[in-house]
Amino acid sequence: MAKRFILSIDGGGIRGIIPAAVLVDLAARLNGLPLYKAFDMIAGTSTGGIIAAGLTCPHPDVSHKAACTPADLLELYADEGDEIFKQNPVLGLINPFGINDPRYKPDALEGRLQKKLGMATLDNGLSKVLITAYDIKQRQALFMANTDKENSNFRYWEAARATSAAPTYFPPALIERIGEKNKDRRFVPLIDGGVFANDPILAAYVEARKQNWGNDELVFLSLGTGQQNRPFAYQEAKGWGILGWMQPSHDTPLISILMQGQASTASYQANALLNPPGTKINYSTVVTKENAASLSYFRLDRQLSSKENDALDDASPENIKALKAIAASIIKENALALDEIAKRILANQ
After folding, report:
1. CB neighbourhood size of 2 (10 A)
2. Please, which residues bridge with residue 114 across strands?
């Protein structure tokens, strides 16, 4: 029986450093095999959608090469995150609590996405790709993917911009369906896919099942961005109204809770759906020498500690260093899982 490998990557803003670093390690275990060849499908939401785009988009200048390696993506977050999440000090003065306008202008992010991804569309992807976003006009989830013709006519860079348009952080993205003649359908207003699928593992599962892979064994690697570590005390939250739950200075608690709630639920459901009964999950799938070969779903994540800021936009040098450190701990703690995934991929080539 042939095997199909699917990679799924959570949203999390600057915390995309964590899955990017894990993928750098996995690429080394794969002896340089490009990830678009290692995985039959790569799915992502928000920052995970940016990673999925970079790994599957054709390079603008070099044929038969992905636009980004995992190392390129890690560098994007670590070295350019402070420019992407750079707040205009003038806006900070006239809009000190981020109530009237999005916290960041999208120009810096859009410029980097266009430079790295060029003008390629999803239907030219090097492997199957799935990127989530939410259509605020039609009020429905949108799965931008080359798994079917209907939603593959989006430019990579615009899909990446749309999936990462986190409410209150960036304005919605208005992106174009290439070749669409119907004026009402040509431009689509989208926000971050994390509002419904911050962990897109179940969306990836459904798209994989839609392919002609019915007789193939499906193996999933799901990468988190660190579970938020900030508790909200009852005595504090009981008095919150709209401003309290959406307060940018508290990193918009409502959005944080909704996104983390979905991610923790999706990992629980995927583990129950895809792994043998009794398989434990504690942020990461509990992998042992005894059960490794029987697993079909590998989740790699952990709770953040007090050393890391769980905000989507803290690109300070101190937080970048802390996020790299927690990525290293995830890699160390999940060495058995990474070894098993790499072994199966290489055996399938």
Report:
1. 9
2. none
Instruction: Name the nearest CA neighbour of 284 among 18, 15, 14, 6.
Output: 18
Q: What is the mean pLDDT of residues 123-140?
A: 97
Give the span between the Cα atoms of 120 and 316, in whole angstroms. Answer: 32
Q: How many residues does the chain have?
A: 349
HEC letters along the chain: CCEEEEEEECCCHHHHHHHHHHHHHHHHHCCCCCHHHHCCEEEECCHHHHHHHHHHCECCCCCCCECCCHHHHHHHHHHHHHHHCCCCHHHHHHCCCCCCCCCCCCHHHHHHHHHHHCCCEHHHCCCEEEEEEEECCCCEEEEEECCCCCCCCCEHHHHHHHHCCCCCCCCCEEEECCCCCCHHHHEEEEEECHHHHCCCHHHHHHHHHHCCCCCCEEEEEEECCCECCCCCCHHHHCCCCHHHHCCHHHCCHHHHHHHHHHHHHHHHHHHHHHCCCCCCEECEECCCCCCHHHCCEEEECCECCCCCCCCCCCCCHHHHHHHHHHHHHHHHHCHHHHHHHHHHHHHCC
Give pLDDT tens digits for 287-323.
999 999 999 999 999 998 877 787 888 899 999 999 9
From residue 38, how far is each of 27, 187, 221 by CA, in Å?
9, 34, 11
CA distances from 288 to 88, 103, 221 (A): 49, 44, 16
Q: Which two tokens stand for residue 99?
A: 């109530």
192-210 average pLDDT score: 95
> Is the CB of residue 97 less than 8 Å from the CB of residue 248?
yes
Answer whether 161's CB lies under 8 Å from 173's CB.
yes
Dihedral in degrees, nearest 10, Cα atoms 165, 167, 168, 173 = 40
Instruction: With beta carbons less than 8 A apart as the criterion, state whether 196 and 132 touch.
Output: yes
Q: 215-224 in b/e burial notation, b at 16+ Cβ within 10 A? A: eeebbbbbbb
